[in-house]
Fold these 4 entries.
Entry 1:
Amino acid sequence: MKNIKIKLIMLFAAAVIFSAGIVKAENNEPSTLNDLNIQIRQELVDLFKTPVPLNFQDKNLNGETEVVISVEKNGKITLKSVEGENNVLKHMISEKIESLNLWTDIKYAGKSFSYRFVSQQD
């Protein structure tokens, strides 16, 4: 009888611990268009903080680029355009952004965001 009580107490304690983790789960869905813009910007900042493997013949990555990112009908966040004078920099930025797999709510379908990248190497 005592053994059954101990098992019931352990089962109850485990249920309480695991249910607390489920209740505390975060909701990462943006509530406004501005929140989505902030989340995308943070993803881009994190992406470009990582070291860049330079597999290009021309290692000149100086310059400015304008990037347009939009939300598709299915909620996928995609790169629409990269404009700038340095083709090597444009290609590197395009590859890095296209490597992301970002999605959001379909209520933001058709919305676009513009970002400006400035790259200066010493």
Entry 2:
Amino acid sequence: MSEGKSIRWIVIASMLFVAYLGWGFMAGSYAGSANADGVVIGRRGTAGLTLMASAIYSFIATSVMQLPAFFQVISWHFSHRIWLPILIVLAEIGIAVGGVGLKRLEENLSKPPKRRR
């Protein structure tokens, strides 16, 4: 494939994005349940875009603020909410398997077609 992003690049970027989303969900869950002081609440508005921007800000700020408590967040989820780390790992595996399948498809499509007799 001569133009565009490679499949490997797309798979790695997707896996990093899912890993960040997973960390953000776990950090927010931990901060909301373990200590309410760790949740960042932005300015709330009545408009849809303001509310969405506030939610995105809260998600990013909480995920960054909980980085020093990385091991506490992970251990708390393995003790209380094991389903969330399992779901994140399954999503990562799904992306990796999909990437392998796409790579095989790309190789098969790049070969010249076989002639039938």
Entry 3:
Amino acid sequence: MKKVIYVLIFLFAFQIGDAQWQSVSNGLGLFSFQNFDKNNDYLLICSNWKIFLSKNYGDNWEETQSIKDEYGSAIEIKCVKFLDNYLIAGTKKGIFISKDYGKTWEAKNNTFNISGNVIPVINCILIKDNNIFIGTNNGVYLSNDKCNNWISKNKRLIIGNSVLNTNIMTFKNNILIITGGDYFNDSGIYFSIDFGNTWEKSSFLNASIRTLYTFNDLILIGADNGIFTSNNNGKSFTQSDFGRTNSITSYKNILLAAKDYEGLFYSNSNGNKWIKNDMIGVDELPRQAVSLFTNNNYVFITYLNGKNIIYRLKLKE
């Protein structure tokens, strides 16, 4: 049986246990979805090979054109973000942008200046104001001119004889936080207070970091062995015995977390206590809860379970 991701879409309120999930899956095929974003007009979701846009919070989805290499073959997509009306896609063959919502794509890979003219794999994209940070298999790069030029931010990110393989990035105020290394063996947390010019490594070590999220004064890490929380800018972390956590986000003042085999949990106590959503209307709980995302009054969750279903849950204010 093919592994496919469920996309669960729901509106959130202070009490969500009794809300009913509604199936909405028009226009999506059988793909593994892992990345959401939004601008003023569209919501987007991407798989390894496809990007879909919706103007009505997922009631209907429209597929963009595939990103192709010079030989006409589709390129695997790792992540996609909006910058105003631009689409910026990170792929296994560098960065591509679209100025027409995915009808056409343009490569932006000429200024990485990596030995041998190697184009890096783009693992993640982080946008703050007009600054575009990308995490790659060759460290961190910054562009402040819509991807036309890339500046290396890899000072003190040299691990052994290579540059840190950067997997996840986030900001806490003006502190840039990344995780990287060998995903299965040596993940670490690095902090920069000067937009990546210099880096300091946290004492936190965990081989299975899956997500980073900042919330008020907290830094939260989702990992295979639970959720780790710091209230002192990463100097120390407290572990919550939560199980494998692939995604953390928030709605208003409530934290949300996606847990494998159980689905959605929420916390109104800064993560000290987590409450399970009953997921009424969902026939089968997820084997792997992949990602969460909020858009206006909607929260989205994707999960891997063997068939493609989209749910939407409406919450009261």
Entry 4:
Amino acid sequence: MDRTGRGIGRFADRGLRRLGRTRPPPRDRTRRHAPAPRAARPPAGSPAPVCEAWLAARAPGAAPQDRAALANLVQLALLVQRDGDLLQELFRVYLALGLKASPAALGLPVDLPGLLRIGEDLAARVKPCPFDTGPVAWQAALQKVELWLQKHAGRDRYALAAELLREPGLAALKPALAARPARRVAVLGHSMTMSLHWTTHGSWIETACEVRRLLEPRFEYASFQAGGLTPARALREGLVERLLLWKPDEAYVLVFVGNASDRESLAEIVARMKAQDIRFHLVDDVRPWAFEGRDDQQEAHRFQRELCAREGGVFLDFQRRHAQAPDWESWRPVGGDIHMYTPGHLFYARELLKFWAG
């Protein structure tokens, strides 16, 4: 109604017709909205419901939401293609919600024999899946969840560095390490230099760098990494260029040298570092089993040693030092020998700190 009391609806309708528009139809307030669809539950016999039912029987004192969270995490860990992204997001969500979703928090054994027994029990209950659900796969998935949750909860390379500084054996190194000049250290390497893998709370070299940083706050380091990195890939994917732009004083290189192209590429990387006055170090390997049946790797390490001798670099033959550790066999992770558990990384972090201390 306008101020005169006359209706204006017909004029509005006429204007809308001129514009080629029409009023929307009146809302039918008697129509009921359809209910939102319920989330689909995983089919019976798939890993998550099987694990949740098993946990209800074996950990009846745990909260139902914690049991469901652990079952979801384990199923996603079994799907190894998504454990680097989606699984990490789910860890953060569950921790933010305050859920206790680790095997240890639910009172389960977390030693390898205990996890394997659980895996054997669950593998016998689950139906065939498009991914591995054998006993060892369950064992590895449960261990991944346990170790990754520890890392997300704060036991990471920063915590490892603090632990190392409290060790009596490193007390004698502190004055020498603290007296070293502040440096910019670059790390060029494959996954054995990376702290994100589930097998370790922190890589050996990044943990050692954090020790240096705690002793000398002006110390800086930066990592230029990729899983399975070779010298050729490091050049092709721009990692070397980024490293050089960062202008470090020293560089530590641990890459997979598999063929002649990789050897040529490594020689080029060394030449470019030398041209920028970067003190370079080539590391042979930090896995005790790295040379097992691998004549090509022994040849690659001979090449690296000779390259350092020729170009004025430092060859760190770390791999053989495992013989000093009586427990080195326990460093090999379940399901493969590509990576290494935290105690092995801590051993080689100590070796690097000894090298730095002189």
